[in-house]
Specification:
349 residues
Length: 349
């Protein structure tokens, strides 16, 4: 057996830097009040010795775990199959990593999972939570609130119970939908159909509202419910063609839905965009650039949404407690941020 060298201690760093143990502790834990020259000596000693702070001891000092829960209100089969979630998680992970925080992924598939997530959040394992893909009847907001952890939501919250201070990041879903319909109408299309997402999610409801803003007089038969999946888009497109064979355009609630709609149209012998023009929503490049034909779609900054969610949460965690002096870095956190959307033209419309 080989003997492992003992881990460098706080005392060893203090001796190497020629400062007190308390000074080393303040520098390592990011506290203020240490002159820059001394702090630089400590950082140099930490690097030379290869000192790694004990996270448990560090948490006692900083009251922080350097860990953030990311809660997706979807089953794992959906999260790992849908590139939307991959892009959002990538943005979250990059922002957390840049600030030396760990991502703890929690998925929910049933009531037992909700209870488990609630217990975990209430157990003091993480500093905060990022929660996305909520449904209107989802118990997660209540569980998060009961756990008392700082939270940022992905998507406009769908509740209206007087709660203040809810922080969220969303895209301009309604405005993006209007842009999609406006583009199709500008191509001379007059029978424009819409395949929705699950209407218990605010993103899908807002996109339907945007469609209706410009198509208030549209035949209600031209609206078919989908579920944000490719299979759901294909089924919905078949139903629309059966009911309204004269439709000449489709606005799909997301790119996966649009990909399914394109398959159904091709199998029915409809040419895209000659017979039916198709516009999606998201601009997920693994989907939009590989459909046949490549998909015209509404771009939302999915990865940036993830980054911004994490940034707002970390900013809130860095805000001083009541009674402490407010620094420039601890600026007020907005309650809601809505990112713009843009039309990306390709061959489908």
């Amino acid at each position: 057996m080989t003997e492992t060298a003992p881990r460098p201690t706080l005392e060893a760093v203090a001796e190497r830097a020629g400062v007190s143990r308390a000074t080393v502790s303040r520098v390592v834990n990011g506290a203020h009040g240490v002159r820059e020259a001394l702090a630089e000596r400590v950082r140099r000693a930490v690097e030379e010795l290869g000192y790694v702070p004990n996270q448990a001891a560090r948490s006692l000092v900083t009251k922080r775990h350097q860990a953030v829960a990311v809660v997706a209100a979807e089953p794992e089969t959906r999260v790992f199959a849908d590139p939307y979630f991959a892009q959002q998680l990538r943005g979250i992970s990059r922002e957390l990593t840049a600030h030396d925080n760990q991502l703890v992924l929690l998925l929910t598939e049933g009531r037992e999972d909700h209870a488990r997530v609630g217990r975990y959040l209430a157990g003091g394992h993480v500093d905060g939570a990022l929660v996305f893909s909520l449904h209107l009847d989802d118990p997660l907001p209540g569980l998060v609130r009961k756990a008392g952890v700082p939270t940022v939501f992905g998507g406009r919250p769908g509740w209206d119970d007087g709660r203040d201070g809810v922080v969220y990041v969303d895209s301009d879903n309604r405005g993006g939908a209007r842009a999609a319909v406006r583009h199709l109408a500008g191509l001379g299309r007059t029978r424009i159909a819409h395949i929705t997402g699950p209407l218990d999610q605010t993103s899908a409801a807002d996109r339907l509202a945007g469609f209706r803003d410009l198509g208030a007089d549209a035949d209600p038969e031209l609206i078919e419910r989908g579920d944000f999946t490719s299979g759901g888009g294909e089924r919905a497109m078949r139903k629309l063609l059966d009911r309204c064979p004269d439709l000449d355009a489709v606005f799909a609630a997301n790119d996966l839905t649009a990909a399914g709609a394109l398959r159904a149209l091709r199998r029915r012998g409809r040419r895209v965009p000659d017979d039916v023009a198709v516009v999606g929503f998201d601009d997920m490049l693994p989907v939009a650039e590989q459909t046949d034909p490549p998909l015209t779609t509404i771009r939302q900054e999915i990865e940036e949404m993830g980054r911004l969610m994490a940034r707002l949460l970390l900013r809130g965690l860095d805000r001083p407690a009541d009674g402490e002096e407010t620094s420039a870095a601890a600026e007020a956190t907005p309650s809601g941020v809505v990112l713009p959307t843009t039309l990306v033209r390709r061959a489908s419309a």
